[in-house]
């Protein structure tokens, strides 16, 4: 009964409360199918059949942070660290433009080697005639730096809040504070960026209630994009022996997020595709409308191991893009 009434509320565009969201996240069997069907319908009504492609370049795997879940954490001395130099990064990004992408995402660990001035030069060079949107995913910086990037032409910023559970956040991100990360998102929004947040589903110690709060937080932050991915344990981290996040629950989080934020850009994340062979298709069928192919140059691709066996790590940019286009076309959807 409660699932039904929560679904009905979502269908009629009414606000969902935490309880409603928890009922929806608990759906299984036929209820789950109905939930995915409604999310797909909402996606179609609000975003159409277009799948937006955003090319990611992971330009540095050096990180000063020590997040328990991440293979790039500074305490992991098994990582062979790399940094792309300024000209190399510009060249790779221009290459992404030439393959036909309208958006490039520049991602890295939190690496202070890249000064605000240096990254601003890269952004300016990449923007060129303005035919490409630049998204940054480089972690927490001070307001002055975020402003310099914006002035240089950056359009969007991805900074996942990871978990809305303050205590869990602090524990897994080794003393960092959720409220500081949220403050960064607010600053970015104020500076005129389109902002993206997101969470990790299945973190050890995470509750269903806190996942429901994650979804309400996406709504409160008025995000344009939400990256939702399962936790995938990395063997060289303190969480290496923990269970991975559930694919089903991740898809349900995606579907409910579509109901709560009908117009948001929701990627079928690489983490979902890593967990299941047909992960992109599954996610595109329950609310997703974006794919972010990894276009990092081959010589670095295998070294950016946030989690192991990342989908697409073995394929060079043009081939991976073609593979993803084939998936989109086979589903009767269109790539932008
Ligand atoms: N350093 C930046 C960007 C790179 S990390 C930052 O932290 O914002 C990009 C994303 O990888 C993080 O937001 C986190 O959600 C995800 N991630 C890290 N380790 C993961 C793991 N073991 N399983 C799933 N996602 C992970
Ligand atoms: Fe660094 Fe981001 Fe990994 Fe945390 S999640 S260790 S900030 S790369």
* Secondary structure: number of strands: 9
Number of continuous helical runs: 14
The hetero molecules present are:
S-adenosyl-L-homocysteine, iron/sulfur cluster
End-to-end Cα distance, whole Å, is 40 Å
Beta-strand content: 5-15%
The major β-sheet equals: 6 strands, parallel
Question: On the 0-100 scale, what is the average pLDDT?
Answer: 96
Structural class: alpha/beta
For the largest beta sheet, what order do the strands appear in spatially? 2-3-4-5-6-7
SSE arrangement, N to C: HHHEEHEHEHEHHEHEHHHEHHE
Provide a short characterization of the protein structure.
It contains 14 helices and 9 strands.
List the helices and strands and how they pair.
Blueprint: H1 2-11, H2 18-25, H3 29-47, E1 50-53, E2 55-60, H4 86-99, E3 103-108, H5 116-127, E4 133-137, H6 143-152, E5 156-158, H7 166-172, H8 178-190, E6 194-201, H9 208-221, E7 225-230, H10 247-260, H11 270-275, H12 279-284, E8 290-291, H13 298-301, H14 317-330, E9 334-335
Parallel strand pairs: 1-8, 1-9, 2-3, 3-4, 4-5, 5-6, 6-7
Helix pairs in contact: 1-2, 2-9, 3-10, 4-5, 5-6, 9-10
The chain binds S-adenosyl-L-homocysteine (SAH) and iron/sulfur cluster.
């Amino acid at each position: 009964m409660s699932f039904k009434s929560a679904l009905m509320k979502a269908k009629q565009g009414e606000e969902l409360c935490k309880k409603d969201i928890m009922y929806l996240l608990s759906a299984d069997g036929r209820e789950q199918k109905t939930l995915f069907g409604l999310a797909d319908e909402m996606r179609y009504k609000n975003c159409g059949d277009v799948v937006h492609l955003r090319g990611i370049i992971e330009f540095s795997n050096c990180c000063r942070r020590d997040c328990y879940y991440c293979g790039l954490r500074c305490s992991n001395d098994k990582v062979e660290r790399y940094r792309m130099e300024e000209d190399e990064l510009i060249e790779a990004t221009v290459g992404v433009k030439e393959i036909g992408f309208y958006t490039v995402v520049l991602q890295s660990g939190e690496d202070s080697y890249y000064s605000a001035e240096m990254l601003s030069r890269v952004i300016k060079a990449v923007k060129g005639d303005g035919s490409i949107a630049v998204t940054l995913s480089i972690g927490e910086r001070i307001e002055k730096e975020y402003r310099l990037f914006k002035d240089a032409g950056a359009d969007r910023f991805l900074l996942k809040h990871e978990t809305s559970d303050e205590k869990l956040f602090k524990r897994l991100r080794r003393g960092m504070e959720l409220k500081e990360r949220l403050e960064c998102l607010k600053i970015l929004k104020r500076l005129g960026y389109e902002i993206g947040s997101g969470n990790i589903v299945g973190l050890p110690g995470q509750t269903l209630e806190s996942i429901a709060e994650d979804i309400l937080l996406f709504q409160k932050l008025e995000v344009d994009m939400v990256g939702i991915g399962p936790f995938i344990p990395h063997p060289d981290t303190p969480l290496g022996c923990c269970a991975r996040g559930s694919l089903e629950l991740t898809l349900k989080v995606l579907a409910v997020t579509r109901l709560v934020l009908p117009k948001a850009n929701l990627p079928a994340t690489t983490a979902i595709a890593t967990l299941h062979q047909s992960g992109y298709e599954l996610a595109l069928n329950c609310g997703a409308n974006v794919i972010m192919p990894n276009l990092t140059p081959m010589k670095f691709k295998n070294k950016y191991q946030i989690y192991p066996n990342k989908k697409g790590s073995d394929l060079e940019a043009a081939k991976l893009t073609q593979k993803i286009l084939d998936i989109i076309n086979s589903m009767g959807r269109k790539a932008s």
